[in-house]
Amino acid sequence: MTSIIRSTQGGCWGSDRLRLRLYGSVFDPAVMPLIDRVESLQGVIRKVKRIEAMGQTGRSNYVDVTKFPKAGTSKLSTDEMPEAPTAPSTYNEKILANYVPVYVMLPLGVISNDNVFEDQPKMEKQLKELRAAGVDGVMVDVWWGIVESKGPKQYYWSAYRSLFALVQECGLKLQAIMSFHRCGGNVGDEVTIPLPQWVLDIGETDPDIFYTNRKGNRNKEYLTIGVDNQPLFDGRTAVQLYSDYMKSFRENMSDFIEAGLIIDIEVGLGPAGELRYPSYTGTQGWVFPGIGEFQCYDKYLEAEFKEAATGAGHPEWGLPDNAGEYNDTPGSTEFFGLNGTYMTEKGKFFLTWYSNKLINHGDEILDEANRAFLGCKVKLAAKVAGIHWWYKSPSHAAELTSGYYNLKDRDGYRPIARMLSRHYAIFNFTCLEMRDSEQRADAKCGPQELVQQVLSGGWREEVEVAGENALSRYDSNGYNQMLLNARPSGISREGLPKQIMYGVTYLRLSDELLKDKNFKIFKTFVKKMHADQDYCADLGMYNHQIGPLERSKPKLVMEDLLEATKPMEPFPWGEETDMKVDDFDGVLANLIRKLFSLFK
């Protein structure tokens, strides 16, 4: 059986403008999103009979769903649409307020190191499959190391323009990441994309432009915060490098922005594009669940700390020398152990300085992003890492080395949310798919509690909260955890829920995802994220309308950030989602086994 779905007005596929055509009499759950996989077998049979009845009308006209128009246009007028009975609408205005859009992250190397959009036919096929599955859009890294690789201020955007045009033709929205970090060395990095060579060349003569651990090992994944305002790059500071790049992006992608294709600009603020220090990196020997190491021993950050300590009346204080190494446990170090340095006046001063440097770094670059995209109908966003290991230990060691000063009596994430609110930016968080029971007990992981704390803090600061999975998952357990976190208190039958995520991005598009069984489950996941409503192209229909970006609010003073460190209980969280994804084949097999057992 084939399912043909077409919106003639750019609205919801479930609206009264929907033209739906079904023909044939073979029930295929992969193309029948209206069938709820968790219904009783009896209910499924009733629906199949209704479909078969529709298929016996004798008509076979249809619209090819693979031929999608550019955003905001339609290749077919309503007069050209084939005649077909209007399907009963599943659209419900109040339920639609529960709609969480789903985006899919594109492969890291979709644009090659040589700045070429390779294998376009394969990507077109995959994008159309995503679109037919109801996916709202895609996310893509726009690599600094590719676009500005030839030299300072030499930007080459043509490959990305070709990719964006294809995304537009396939009827998807786009989230663009300003990726100022190196690809390679992190979990899931399948390709290596270094920083621009001319930047690395400067590092040959001044290696302190890179993050440095206590042993002096340099990390070339991202420029140290210490050079944010140092004019070391042919007269430009690091912040100016990022600012100029974003301005060039806006100038060269203005048509896509104006067409409504690009809706989010996620600003890379550290390794893996996340606002954090590179405290855990496989290229320097770290393995899970090591506590990681502080990364502030380059000469620029050392000088800044010395100045801060002297100003606080403690010129004798230096950077930590007792915090262990990458793969230590908290208890094996003097800094993070029982009654450790982290609890002393000296330790608290350092951790406050270290975490505030990170927040100020994000604040400054987002301010430049706001200037670059001022007036554009886009949302800014920033990503924060889900450091869930050692979360249930007193010192939260892995979070502290990453720059998140988070303890039982101190919230390390709400100050970040408060900073983001100044720029009207989305708070994007990771590890949505993880459950405590899936983690190593000895690592004292707490992904569920961490997600609840972080999302609650974002909602309390009145910022939009989005998220993604940290590791690729294709199973119903991972999807159901993401669904629970997207709507912690479930579906609201009366309109907008009290807590709801702004969007979810799935990591990532691959051949494995598109395998038959995996993709069937994924399509059900998308449908459930949409609250069992059909795909909706009109963002305003589910309260996601995007107006012109306003100028950032006044800079926060230190007292404002410190006030946000006061811990608060998270919002209530359900035990499981009320929009559950089930492996249909597994449910059917269990049902058949139960039926056979009745006759034994």
TrEMBL record:
InterPro entries xrefs: GH, Glyco_hydro_14, Glyco_hydro_14_CS, Glyco_hydro_14B_pln
Residue spans crossing the bilayer: none
Binding site for substrate: D141, H181, D189, K383, H388, T430, N469, A470, R508
Domain of life: Eukaryota
Name the record gives this protein: Beta-amylase
Catalytic residues as annotated in Swiss-Prot or TrEMBL: E274, E468
GO MF annotations, alphabetized: beta-amylase activity
Keyword Hydrolase: yes
Organism: Gossypium barbadense
EC top class named in words: hydrolase
Chemical reaction(s) catalysed: Hydrolysis of (1->4)-alpha-D-glucosidic linkages in polysaccharides so as to remove successive maltose units from the non-reducing ends of the chains
One Pfam family of this chain: Glyco_hydro_14
Family statement: Belongs to the glycosyl hydrolase 14 family.
Keywords linked to the UniProt accession: Carbohydrate metabolism, Glycosidase, Hydrolase, Polysaccharide degradation
GO BP term, pick one: polysaccharide catabolic process
Enzyme Commission number(s) from the entry: 3.2.1.2
